[in-house]
Design brief:
By secondary structure, the protein is mostly helical. It is about 85% helix and about 0% strand. The longest helix is centred in the C-terminal third of the chain and has 248 residues. The chain is flat.
């Protein structure tokens, strides 16, 4: 029989800023520890029963959820555009004398901010309250397993009159919640910064638009100037052509004279080149001799390097062997230390338990002694009372006997 699972509502936790971590060495009384053990064992049995139940995952209506989310996103976009327009209009109205319009814009901006926050919260609730059922069941299964493990550890520790695992788990949950709250605070700060940047971006866009308009006007003025320059250029081109022709003839004469000078410089350079080639051959011969000497020296140094490298390799291998032996010895000493430490801890625990048992025995003997003294005292008091009442009863008995004899005589 299939049952429809209700959607899991997200739980909201309030962080306790006055929370103080508990000490991990608290020892519970034996009676309370037994009560807690019984409660935890009952909870474990119920969790194991829940673990045997395997409900089928239901398919959620994703289409309807997608339509709601799309509608909220469109509304957010429209509100943001309207918010941007009002910001620009508000910045423009600052320089005007109409303060009423500025206040109206400020009020409208506040309303839009509230609407945007409400839409964001609604979208967050939709995304949190409509996750997939399979993921919910998997999460529930994981949390149930973690809770079973925690309760099992707590039961084992309560048998020793402590609950360290429970304290550590609670402190870890508080740390996670504090981290989540810090993340939310940072996200809120980031949203405020984003809004401020959006306002600055709108102002920058307005400034860029004004600057673009100014530049367009300058460009139009430059175009007009270019047209005027083109008209002047046409009249100047004829004059420039005649000037260039005369300048060309003058340059031709100068170039022919310069050519003669360059031919003479070329001959000088050829002579210098022959001298440089001769010097080059001498230098090459000298460098070849020097190279042979350096190669011989390099060969000697390489031989020395190989010998030194081989010696250092042997020394390195010896050091590695020594290090391996030292590591083995160190591991043996560490294992011996750990075993001795375990033995010392076990003896300390046994001595503590024996001291506790001895203290309980002494308390019981003291209590028994006090009870015996009390009962002996009561017994003595009772014996004294009985002893004080005994003569009175004896006198009454004698009188009764005398009267009885007299009665018998009278009858005779």
């Amino acid at each position: 029989m299939n049952k429809t699972l209700p959607p899991i509502q997200p739980k909201t936790f309030e962080l306790d800023s006055n929370y103080i971590p508990l000490a991990s060495n608290i020892v519970l009384p034996a009676g309370k520890a037994q009560n807690f053990i019984a409660i935890f064992e009952d909870a474990l049995e119920q969790l194991s029963v829940l673990g045997d139940i395997t409900p089928e995952a239901m398919k959620t209506d994703n289409k309807q959820l997608a339509e709601k989310i799309t509608k909220i996103l469109f509304e957010q976009k429209a509100i943001q555009e309207r918010h941007q327009e009002l910001l620009i209009e508000r910045d423009q109205s600052k320089s005007l004398a109409n303060k009423t319009r500025y206040k109206e814009l400020q009020s409208s901006l506040s309303d839009l901010n509230i609407q945007l926050q409400n839409l964001t919260q609604t979208l967050g609730r939709l995304l949190k309250t409509h996750p997939s059922v399979a993921q919910n069941l998997l999460k529930i299964q994981q949390e149930r397993s973690a809770l079973q493990a925690l309760l099992s550890r707590s039961v084992r520790e309560l048998k020793e009159y402590r609950f360290d695992s429970l304290i550590q788990t609670v402190e870890e949950e508080y740390r996670k919640r504090n981290t989540l709250q810090n993340t939310i605070n940072r996200e809120n700060d980031a949203l405020d910064t984003l809004r401020e940047l959006q306002r600055e971006l709108a102002n920058e866009k307005k400034l860029i638009q004004d600057e673009t308009n100014d530049r367009n006007q300058v460009i139009q003025q430059l175009k007009d100037t270019i047209q005027e320059i083109n008209a002047l250029t046409i009249s100047e081109q004829k004059y420039i052509k005649k000037e260039v022709k005369a300048h060309e003839n003058s340059i031709r004469l100068n170039c022919s004279h310069r050519e003669q000078q360059l031919i003479q410089e070329k001959q000088l350079l050829l002579n210098r080149l022959e001298q440089e080639n001769l010097a080059h051959e001498k230098i090459m011969e000298y460098l070849a001799n020097e190279r042979q000497l350096l190669e011989k020296s390099i060969q000697d140094w390489m031989t020395c390097y190989e010998e030194d490298t081989e010696a250092k390799s042997v020394e390195l291998e010896n050091l590695k062997v020594k290090r391996t032996k030292d590591l083995d010895k160190f591991e043996e000493l560490v294992s011996a230390y750990e075993s001795l430490e375990k033995i010392v801890d076990e003896e300390r625990r046994i001595r503590t338990q024996e001291a506790e048992d001895q203290r309980m025995i002494m308390m019981r003997e003291s209590a028994a002694t006090k009870i015996q003294r009390f009962y002996r005292k009561q017994k003595r008091i009772r014996a004294q009372l009985l002893a004080s009442k005994a003569p009175i009863k004896g006198a009454k008995g004698k009188k009764g006997k005398g009267s009885g004899k007299k009665g018998k005589k009278g009858k005779k």
